[in-house]
Automatic annotation (TrEMBL), chain A:
Residues 4-234 form the ABC transporter domain. GO terms for molecular function: ABC-type transporter activity; ATP binding; ATP hydrolysis activity. Keywords: ATP-binding, Cell inner membrane, Cell membrane, Membrane, Nucleotide-binding, Sugar transport, Translocase, Transport. Pfam families: ABC_tran (PF00005). Belongs to the ABC transporter superfamily. One of its GO terms (biological process) is glycerol-3-phosphate transmembrane transport. InterPro entries: AAA+_ATPase, ABC_transporter-like_ATP-bd, ABC_transporter-like_CS, ABC_transpr_MalK-like, ABC_transpr_MalK/UgpC-like, Mo/tungstate-bd_C_term_dom, NA-bd_OB-fold, P-loop_NTPase. The keyword Cell inner membrane applies. The lineage of its organism: Bacteria, Pseudomonadati, Pseudomonadota, Alphaproteobacteria, Rhodobacterales. GO terms for cellular component: ATP-binding cassette (ABC) transporter complex, substrate-binding subunit-containing. It comes from Paracoccus subflavus. The gene is ugpC. This is sn-glycerol-3-phosphate ABC transporter ATP-binding protein UgpC.
UniProtKB/TrEMBL annotation, chain B:
CDD domains: TM_PBP2. SUPFAM superfamilies: MetI-like. Belongs to the binding-protein-dependent transport system permease family. The chain crosses the membrane at residues 12-30, 75-96, 108-128, 156-178, 205-226, 267-287. Residues 71-283 form the ABC transmembrane type-1 domain. The complex is composed of two ATP-binding proteins (UgpC), two transmembrane proteins (UgpA and UgpE) and a solute-binding protein (UgpB). This is sn-glycerol-3-phosphate transport system permease protein UgpA. It is found in: Cell inner membrane; Cell membrane. One of its GO terms (biological process) is transmembrane transport. It comes from Paracoccus subflavus. It is a multi-pass membrane protein. The lineage of its organism: Bacteria, Pseudomonadati, Pseudomonadota, Alphaproteobacteria, Rhodobacterales. Part of the ABC transporter complex UgpBAEC involved in sn-glycerol-3-phosphate (G3P) import. Probably responsible for the translocation of the substrate across the membrane.
């Protein structure tokens, strides 16, 4: 039985529906990350599981038990907040031990557990300080400790790293991953940062506009995006999305500026316009289509070349080894099998592509 | 901590402060100095040379039973007004903090009494509390003689305390509401997830976090009730019946302006002033160190 279940969950805020029937199962011990742009409803989903937000329709279950009407304090969940939400008038030790104090754990055991958690998170030196006297990273660790100490059934993380600088964020990310590997507690992590999402998740859920776009392992979601939205959201820089037209017989596709490609597999139904997707790292310098160069960005571990393609830009990643100068035009080559096809509504199509004629534009 | 500003000109800061210092001097230090001087002399009521009598004015006051009665009345009045108006203000603020529909109207409505001058409010309330023709007269129809602030000192004291509370409760409400709304919602949510129910959360979290507000209001309410009770008492009871509602500030007025005993009145003012100063200082020294100010960690950050 899954540890956490969302069953056709809906949420309405004063007449505006922000979640449209979300269903999601999270297995015991899994680390699920919900990724999505701001306003997609990911935090709302998390807060509904925490019991901080009412469920408008559908059901939230923990271990098969319906939770809709169970108070937050009785759900046995721990949450790390984006702003840490440390109690400002309590010391670090009091912050860590508060849940145990409420649960009437004897003083000696409480002290022992506080010391243990503090040691795990390198907070032992700061137990007598107040949150206001700590740095951002230290506060973050206290917030983590406050969640860990309870040994809850499920950990909830609401964008816990977004207030840290880049270096600390990477460090804490590894810390969180290590803790999860050690303790194996089911975790639900909400973020808008795709690097966090890709690295932490063993189950990645991409949300958009109150719906789940795709759920799967990070590799699946990256390599086989279920929709143009997922394709365009993941990857730095994200996948290039280029307009395309099927031919009359549905056996070939004309991709803007890149050329005509033969469809493998079943013929394309209808003549509705399509979207072709190409990841920047899947194209390189080579004999093929030549496009005007708009801009070159130096990344150190490579160069990102933006090419003019009709009225949009197509990004191509040149590997670090390619130091040849980039002039006004760049000729690029790519394996047509790497091209992805999406219907106009964004859903991925199963058809693969093979090149027949690559045209060169003037 | 206030921002330090450096002025290029040496006289400019003094020039900027001068108007305020002048006003404070004319309306506070000068009269205070005058009162201090009078309190050591016998001041003839219709002019003429004053006689230096040293501490005799103070001795007479402290030996007077009437004065001690006024002191007890003041303590009762100040304590009751402060406790009742703080508790009610806090309760109203807690209700309002729940985010009711029409909160803005409620907030505006509840602040109005503060805009009413104490004597004006006292006039209105006098009609309400009047034992024969006022609304409270209905009580006397059911149980004859149960309510009569005109004859019963305790009733009169209850009456002036109620009106003072009515006047100050809104002031406390606004401060408490601001204090409650400054508490981030996520803190309360974190405590809920830590397993604390609403009552527990209130005592462990909300109360400590609004304690600076609480402290400020205690100091203000005590200090204000020592002096501001005058308007209400002057209109409603004139310190009566007997001397049942005569508080220190009202006795100062009566002895000075009605009895024309400027010296005793001045000496009483000096004592009252000293009392307010001592009380405020004690409150600061006793309570303040136990209070956590949200911003005070910033200064000690390493």
């Amino acid at each position: 039985m899954p540890e956490v279940e969302f069953d056709r969950v809906e949420k309405t805020f004063g007449g505006t529906r922000v979640l449209h029937g979300v269903s999601l199962d999270i297995a015991q011990g899994a680390f699920a990350v919900i990724l999505g742009p701001s306003g997609c409803g990911k935090s709302t989903l998390l807060r509904m599981l925490a019991g901080l937000e009412r469920v408008s329709a559908g059901e939230v279950r923990l271990n098969g038990r319906r939770m809709n009407d169970v108070a937050a304090k009785d759900r046995d969940l721990a949450m790390v907040f984006q702003n840490y939400a440390l109690y400002p008038h309590m010391t670090v030790a009091e912050n860590l031990g508060y849940a145990l104090k409420v649960a009437r754990v004897p003083r000696t055991e409480r002290a022992a557990r506080v010391a243990e958690v503090a040691a795990t998170l390198q907070l032992s030196e700061m137990l007598d300080r107040r949150p206001g006297q700590l740095s951002g990273g230290q506060r973050q660790r206290v917030a983590m400790g406050r969640a860990i100490i309870r040994r809850p059934r499920v950990f909830l993380f609401d964008e816990p790293l977004s207030n840290l600088d880049a270096k600390l964020r990477t460090q804490m990310r590894i810390e969180i991953k290590r803790l999860h590997l050690k303790q194996g507690v089911t975790s639900l992590f909400v973020t808008h940062d795709q690097v966090e999402a890709m690295t932490l998740a063993d189950r990645l859920v991409v949300m958009n506009a109150g719906r789940i776009e795709q759920a799967g392992t990070p590799s699946e979601v990256y390599h086989r995006p279920a929709s143009a939205f997922v394709a365009g959201f993941l990857g730095t820089p994200p996948m290039n999305l280029i307009p395309a037209e099927p031919t009359a017989d549905g056996r070939a596709v004309e991709v803007e500026a890149l050329g005509r490609f033969v469809v493998e597999g079943p013929a394309l139904p209808g003549r509705a316009p399509l979207i072709a997707g190409l990841r920047p790292e899947h194209a390189s310098r080579g004999p093929g289509v030549s496009l005007p160069v708009e801009m070159v960005e130096e990344l150190g571990n490579g160069r990102l070349v933006h090419l003019r393609c009709g009225d949009r830009l197509v990004a191509v990643m040149l590997p670090e080894g390619d130091r040849a100068p980039v002039a006004d035009r760049l000729s690029i080559a790519f394996d047509p099998d790497r091209l992805m096809l999406f219907a106009a509504d964004g859903s991925a199509l199963p058809q693969r592509l093979r090149a027949i004629a690559v045209r060169t534009h003037a | 901590m206030l921002k330090r500003v450096l002025f290029e000109s040496r006289w400019l800061p003094y020039a900027l402060l001068a108007p305020q210092i002048l006003i404070v001097f004319v309306f506070f230090y000068w009269p205070t100095g005058q009162a201090l001087f009078w309190s050591f002399t016998l001041e003839p009521p219709f002019g003429g040379a004053a006689t230096w009598v040293g501490l005799r004015n103070f001795g007479d006051i402290l030996a007077s039973g009437e004065y001690w009665q006024a002191a007890v009345n003041t303590a009762v009045f100040a304590l009751a007004t402060t406790v009742v108006s703080l508790v009610l203000g806090l309760l109203f603020a807690i209700f309002a903090d729940r985010g009711l529909r029409g909160l803005a109207i409620y907030k505006t409505g509840i602040i109005w009494p503060y805009a009413v001058a104490a004597p004006a409010a006292a006039v209105v309330w006098q009609y309400i509390f009047q034992p024969s023709v006022g609304y409270f007269g209905i009580l006397n129809l059911v149980w004859p003689g149960i309510w009569n602030p005109l004859l019963n000192g305790t009733h009169a004291m209850i009456m002036v305390i109620a009106v003072s509370c009515w006047l100050s409760v809104t002031f406390n409400f606004v401060f408490f509401l601001a204090g409650l709304q400054a508490i981030p919602n996520s803190l309360v949510e974190a405590a809920a997830l830590d397993g604390a129910g609403p009552v527990r959360r209130w005592f462990d979290l909300v109360f400590p976090l609004i304690s600076p507000t609480f402290f400020l209001l205690i100091v203000l309410n005590v200090a204000i009730s020592f002096t501001e009770g005058f308007g209400v008492i002057h209109v409603m009871t004139q310190g009566g019946p007997g001397n049942a509602t005569e508080i220190l500030v009202y006795k100062i007025y009566r002895d000075g302006f009605v009895g024309l005993d400027f010296s005793s009145s001045s000496a009483q003012s000096v004592i009252l002033m000293g009392l307010v100063v001592v009380l405020t200082l004690t409150q600061f020294l006793l309570i303040e160190r136990k209070i956590h100010y949200a911003g005070d960690d910033k200064g000690t950050r390493r």
